[in-house]
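Repro:
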Amino acid sequence: MVKKIRFPLKMKNGTDVRTLDELKENFDLESVLGYFTDGRLATWLSDRYYDEKAEAVAALSADMPDLNAKLCEILEVEYEAEADETDVELIAMRREKFQIISGVTDNREILDNIDRVAMDQDELFDILDESPEKVYLYGDKFEIPFGKENISYIGINKPLVIIDKSKYSEDFEENGISFRNVEFEEGAFQTRYLTPVGEYEIEDGVLYKGKPDSNGVCVIPYGVERIEDNAFEECVELIKIFVPDSVKRIGSYAFAYCKNLIDVTISNSITHIDHAAFCECESLTNVYVKDNVIKVTD
């Protein structure tokens, strides 16, 4: 029997509500209207066996003139008409965004923070005005302002990111700026700007041993110049790896027998890939490599 996962509703004050009493205690109409328009309010009620309330909510229409008052009545919350400043147009836009994003990902963290998803450059600037810790990117390309500090940019559809080429990885790290699941424009030194992920044994620019994070991802730190022989050999936890543009050589059997490795991004600085570097990587599907590799042995 599969256990049902009951999601909470996040209110504007940051509280995750799981019961009707918690909803009443932390109630804000704008958040509730957002959950009503995307259908999650009725599901949330039904999952908790508030069947009559779920049916009553499902029977409401978004174009009802007294929708806000009706919702408050069903949820047993006092409706204060004079304090009602909800933006119906904004709520409708949020619903449309939720429907688009939920069609490409079921990641609960992203869906619960739909107001932090930027779908174009103007929306990114609006979100950055609120100084968030995380911003999710869904679109073709985004220009990232260097002046906004302590922000993690997370791509949903691996969008193109444009950054100031005069800045270096140290500058981004000092400003608390990091990137995940994005692509960089040509000449932006790609993985230089990615926050290192995984655990490594490194000495004098040589990576002797490495292992991925809990998601099976390795982002090798910028500054590594060589991946030593057998560095990841038989690392069955490894699924995806990014090799930064500081690396010039991948040693023999470096990734051999990584049977679950699917995705490899090799930077444009690599000149040598040694013997059997990816031997018996039976799941390997995607390999991104530039055309300036000088030597690839057996």
